[in-house]
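[scheduler] slot 2 assigned
[scheduler] job type: sequence-to-structure, two independent chains
[scheduler] chain ordering preserved from manifest
[runner] begin chain α
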Amino acid sequence: MLNSRERAQLRAIETALWLQDPAFCRLLTTGRVRSAAPRRFALALLVLGVVGLLLAMTVLSTLGVAVSVVLALVGGGLWLWFSGAVTPGR
């Protein structure tokens, strides 16, 4: 449980974050982003990873496969997080 001083400090930090970037603050507080731009970016990472994986598998490049798998996993995770389907830490 937070005391009144800690709550005031937390509110001040939230206000500063909100003034700096409302979308980021909304992401921190609710786990959702209303803008479609972050979801599109994450989806692009996912697609890039999957396409890269298919291309790397045809060439049989181990490094290419590893990089593509990481891109696909990061893109998919970010897309799920930004779409609100998954909220990390809850």
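[runner] end chain α
[runner] begin chain β
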Amino acid sequence: MANPPAIVKVTLESICLLLGEAASDWKAIRSVIMKENFISTIVNFNTDDLTSVSFVTHTFFVSLNSHFCQSCFYCIAFY
């Protein structure tokens, strides 16, 4: 996908942040999700290893956009 919707970018950026990957633009996000071990990393993700993550202030996580936040619950659940 060359240019996905903004909510897809934000969701994947959040996942990258949870995984400790610095990916803030689509090119960097794509390089993370295209790694051979990406799916296994997500499946085996240990929530006990989470550190303080300050991403929930992004506008897509605010209640005004709650309709779009459904796909972000995965990230919020770990926070």
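[runner] end chain β
[qc] chain β: The chain has one domain: 6-78.
[scheduler] slot 2 released
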